[in-house]
Amino acid sequence: VKLYSDPASGNVYKPMLLMAHLGMEYAHIPTTWEDGGTRAPEFLRLNPNGKVPCIEDGDFVLWESGAILNYLARDTPWLPDAPRLKAQVLQWMFFEQYSHEPYIAVARAAMHYDAPGPARDRKIASKGSGGEHALAVMEQHLHACTWFVGDAPTIADIALFAYTHVADEGGFSLAPYPNIRAWIARMQAISGHIPIGPVSD
Amino acid sequence: VKLYSDPASGNVYKPMLLMAHLGMEYAHIPTTWEDGGTRAPEFLRLNPNGKVPCIEDGDFVLWESGAILNYLARDTPWLPDAPRLKAQVLQWMFFEQYSHEPYIAVARAAMHYDAPGPARDRKIASKGSGGEHALAVMEQHLHACTWFVGDAPTIADIALFAYTHVADEGGFSLAPYPNIRAWIARMQAISGHIPIGPVSD
Questions:
Q1: Pair type for strands A27-30 and A2-5
Q2: Which of A122, A167, A175, B132 has the most CB atoms around it within 10 Å of its CB?
Q3: What is the Cα–Cα distance from B195 to B192, expressed in whole angstroms?
Q4: How far is A158 from chain B (nearest CA, A)?
């Protein structure tokens, strides 16, 4: 498998973390917005939406981190086979992409990439209530559950872990969320865990 | 199946359209933001994220339109079984939720629900380039394909159809996108098709 990747991206980190757990070998093809790689014609032929991650598995091309996680995790314990569990995995993955990432990841990206000033401050402030809402939903769910779906970690945990554990980099404190902090520690304790890559300066 | 629903929501229309095609019976439970239903404690016990659609199938509760479509379409022609096709269905469904709906559906909602004025105009204008980008990605894909994945309609088509065919209600003209218009006509010609519900005034 070839992984078109940007080490700073939490969405890229998701398949990297899964493949680390699965012991899968893959080739990195660095492709970032900063170096123009995601807008290059040869990359747009693979993903017309111009985003990483994107994978090539032989002649099969797939983009969208959520789709890639489901594809790579098929027939492994990271994606349960029972229809109801499988549906709940997708529920939390769609929640992450719609109600979590656009606040928590976008605030983090603004802190790293936008020029300091009032425009950046307004952008980050506009993400506050949506991000806190997403964290509150997670906190409540983890009150009764060890993992997001079923009784073992799944790709739903990987999808939510990627940006949650670095939420502070976007200005979100996890101090009010003890269940989330305990779950983060459980994720990091799984054998094979790898950290997210550094954000380039 | 019980469907917690708001007739104005394209996200609710997605499972309604699928169930119409599948000939599935279900009970509507009207639950809207306007009437406070999505913020009621008894609904938040089902979906702590406070959004419709949400379904109950016996004691099984599921929310997020993308997860509901995958659950209801399992073992039907609307969700192919081959791993690569199934992954591509998810790719387009995650694309829809991240790169399409937040522009095209949010502009439509602003036109319907926000008070006319400069704030609404700015909000709608801020959705323009993202929405046009999503439509351009779809247009290009449909140049070579009849349906988004494989050679028959899938839940990826349903997910993308819901807000695309009413994109004009958010100020997006489909005139520059002949492939999209032809695909919309193909979707509407499938036996069993039902229209989206009216937006309440």
A1: parallel
A2: A167
A3: 10
A4: 16
